[in-house]
Amino acid sequence: MRKTPSAESLAAAATRASISGGLPPVHLWDPPFCGDIDMEIRRDGTWFYQGTPIGRAPLVRLFSSILRREGDAYFLVTPVEKVGIRVEDAPFVAVDANAAGADTDQVIAFTTNVGDRVTAGPEHPIRVERDPETGEPAPYLLVRVNLEALIDRKTFYRLVELGAEHPHAGEDWFGLWSSGCFFPMIPAKDLP
Length: 192
Fold this sequence. Notes:
Blueprint: H1 7-17, E1 33-41, E2 47-49, E3 52-53, H2 57-64, E4 67-70, E5 73-77, E6 82-87, E7 92-100, E8 107-112, E9 117-119, E10 126-130, E11 137-144, E12 147-151, H3 153-160, E13 164-168, E14 171-178, E15 181-187
Parallel strand pairs: 1-6, 7-12
Antiparallel strand pairs: 1-2, 2-3, 4-5, 5-6, 7-8, 8-9, 10-11, 11-12, 13-14, 14-15
């Protein structure tokens, strides 16, 4: 039986894998599963190892570069090992957004807590889930393959100011335009 790797050995492997400066091709790697590691990403984007927050932003960025989702499970993956971690909601948080243009020509670019820069559009859609009890919105942005960012509250409220009504799926919706795509947020009839 293989020993579950430590955070330090994963960090070293991630560093070797991302020497080129870009994101490692984790989608191409198929290493053996080595078990779960005591690492968790909380809803606010804070990474924990063995119950302690990881305070070094470069280390969090490094770990985020080898993160992969399969179904509902999340893994840190290197060319030689794969370990499971826990993710409370989404693995990333969109902490800022900038819009350029207007109406259907609008483009919204997001920055995540780990430094990813993503422009919402066909390959990076925005979706909004609503809490069935409270109706509170939870907006998400697809950052990488199967990996989303929860759009933080302050950023979401700024985005709402850019919203517009547009027909979608047979009814009018309030939503956002970016890169020629309309992303519905709430049926217009449900607006306060």
